[in-house]
Amino acid sequence: MPFISPLSIPSPDPVFQSFSIGPLTIHTYALCILAGIIVAMFWVNRRLTQRGGEPGVVVDIVLWAVPLGIIGARFYHVFTHLGDYFYPGANLLDVFAIWDGGNALYGSLIGGAIGAWIGCRMSGIRLWSFADALAPAMLLAQAIGRLGNYVNHELFGLPTTLPWGLEIESDNAKFPAGLADGTLFHPLFLYEIIWNVVGIALLLLLERRFALRWGKLFALYLIWYGLGRSWLEAIRIDPTSDGFLGIPANVWASFVAIALGIVLFAVQSRRHPGLENSVYRPGRGPRVVEPRKKKGKGGEDAVTADEGEGSSESGVWTDEELAAAAPASGSAAPAKD
């Protein structure tokens, strides 16, 4: 048996892959994906509201983007691993068993983009404004989701003698034939987590330095993620993945992501060299409410905005807006909630 370094990464006990609550079976992989989605949603909401978006508007977009993203992720995986799901005696219902793992990021980008476009059209948010707000949050969600791959004993690379190699049981379906029990493998899930965290820092730095808007930050996300993923997929052990010209499908998808990112950045830089004036599409904006009156000190009418409703532009009532909205006969200074 090969020597196992004390720094090697053991795979979690399979018992942690799922647990039961009454008749329900909860899969850790699904919880990791859900946790990533929730964290990303809160961060995107914060980034959009800081740019003038109405608080909570991200929910209107997520309700479309997340379901279609999950559907796209699953079917992309199935179509690039047909041998895993279509063979004599196969249970075709396994095509929908996302809790067993097998959700492709590039499929989620395709499905999620369609859902985001629908959600943005309905909410009035610019698609590229949402994409820029999403870019670093997407990397964070992906990093959290990769913990699910670790729990499921999947997403590992070629054998390695590096001390931080990943321990994989020899009866794993993807364990290469002919290798000795105890062989260590590149922990691709960990490499991608590190790559994504570095990418978050880089995107935020570039965004602050160059005020990247109009989809340009999202373009850099595509380039960064595509570069990292193309290398990771090149050393990944995934014998059932379909490919073309001997190159795995995910490597081709990474090349496409890089190319799209470069084209998007070049086109948007030419079309929109200036700053973004609003995250809303022309003619749209935060909900507008009429100021209401309430009694101030001494019984005078004071003007205020309905709590939590926002104003015509920024979502926050300014002293000037309230003063302009106050009746000419009112002698008291405007008040704000």
TrEMBL record:
KW Transmembrane (keyword) present: yes
Superkingdom in the source lineage: Bacteria
EC number(s) given by UniProt: 2.5.1.145
Sequence intervals crossing the membrane: 20-44, 56-76, 96-120, 127-145, 188-206, 218-237, 249-267
Positions contributing to a 1,2-diacyl-sn-glycero-3-phospho-(1'-sn-glycerol) binding: R146
Pathway: Protein modification; lipoprotein biosynthesis (diacylglyceryl transfer)
Enzyme class of the recorded protein, top EC level: transferase
GO MF annotations in UniProt: transferase activity
Keyword Cell membrane: yes
Listed InterPro entries: Lgt
HAMAP family tied to this protein: Lgt
UniProt protein name: Phosphatidylglycerol--prolipoprotein diacylglyceryl transferase
Lineage: Bacteria, Bacillati, Actinomycetota, Actinomycetes, Micrococcales
Name of the gene this protein is made from: lgt
